[in-house]
Amino acid sequence: MSQKESKEDDLIMKEADAFSKVQDSSEDSDDDSEAEKNSVHSSDDEDQVDAAGGTSSVEAIRQYLAAKLGIGSEDLVKLSDDQKHPSILSSLDFDGIIEYIKEGKAKNIITMAGAGISTSAGIPDFRTPGTGLYDNLQKYELPNPTAIFDIRFFEHNPKPFYTLAKELYPGKFEPTPSHYFIKLLEKKSLLLRHFTQNIDTLERVAGIGDDSIVEAHGAFHKGHCIKCRKEYSQDWIKEIIFKDEVPTCECGSFVKPDIVFFGENLPERFFTCMQSDFKKCDLLIILGTSLVVQPFASLIDRVGPDCPRLLINMEKAGVSSRLDQVLSGAGLQIDSPGNYRDVAWLGDCDQGCRELAEGLGWGEELEEMLKEKKGERES
């Protein structure tokens, strides 16, 4: 065996090991996805995508494939670059998105939102150490923090959930500029659908229509008996909860708000709209989510290849890193040399929405909506 062949074999073995590790990560993620499908998560900021690690994994896979194919990794990059899609945005930044909307190319916008659009309203997240809900549930004497949102625990002891629900019940919090920006899209007949992970119902408070909203993890706006499925209104449930009593159906079983607990399936509406909406989408705006909770996170890959995707978030999220994403082109391509449609604006969601509205010439209208709502509260 020649020295060159020996080096190539060493490279293949080394990168095959990296390839295997990424596969294992992908399989673990798939297992997590199946588990998440039947769970509730209104806050997803506990998990973050390791962009640096993802980049190194991508490079490892590139080197492995280059060695297997007998070409240099730089040639593999060139092959990828040569397969770029036609230009969709004039520039891969806020200005490019603004121009795209102004030119009338965005007529069916889908927004996807996570906890980041509600934190400025004062709503606590779930898992932040020290301040998250799961770190402050000792008084409920739970077997584990997540039991408070477990349907099996609820069936035997609903009291802890209702005590917490009283503290978090809708009506104590007000929508943020991010919520009103989404409402503004609806007002201008540009919003096809708003998919939210949040259970706070602030979209409804902001005036976004029921038909425009998909609450992936449910919400408090109505409830059902867990046994006979009789429907109850939010006002009825709230009245009982605020008496420090447990809402009970006439059949004798407990009534639970329609938020998705661990052990329950996501709403049918989520899957129905997922199937019908994303193929029509011509601009996807992702707000305040780390894109790690499945199946919600996978929605970004359901739009067509010519649909621009804008991420407004405190940090990059949903960036292509896993093996299956790299090979299939899934995930946001923000850092990829072949990126042709993905834009990231990093910072506070409210500020990002304000700047986007300003660039579109809607700034004054957005601020007027905020003032109008504030006036209604004070009157």
Helicity, in percent?
A: 40-55%
- Main sheet summary: 6 strands, parallel
Q: Tally of extended strands?
A: 9
Radius of gyration (CA) equals 23 Å
Structural class: alpha/beta
Outline, from the CA principal axes?
A: globular
Average of per-residue pLDDT values:
80
Parts with pLDDT < 50 across at least 5 consecutive residues? 11-55, 75-83
Query: What's the helix count?
Result: 13
| Topology order in helix (H) and strand (E) letters | HHHHEHHHEHEEEHEHEEHEHH
Strand content: 5-15%
What quaternary form is this? Answer: single chain
| Spatial sequence of strands, sheet with the most strands | 3-2-1-7-8-9
Distance between the termini: 86 Å
Describe the structure.
The chain is an alpha/beta fold and 379 residues long. Helix content is 41%, strand content 12%. The protein has 13 helices and nine strands. The protein has helices spanning 3-37, 51-69, 73-82, 94-102, 151-156, 159-168, 177-187, 202-205, 234-241, 268-277, 323-328, 349-359, 363-378, and strands at residues 109-113, 191-196, 213-215, 218-225, 231-233, 255-259, 283-287, 309-313, 342-346. The strands form two sheets. Strands 3-2-1-7-8-9 form a six-stranded parallel sheet, sandwiched between helices. The chain has a three-stranded antiparallel sheet with strand order 5-4-6. Helix 1 crosses helix 2 (51-69), helix 2 (51-69) crosses helix 3 and helix 7 crosses helix 13 (363-378). The relative contact order is 0.16. Residues 11-55 and 75-83 have low confidence and may be disordered.
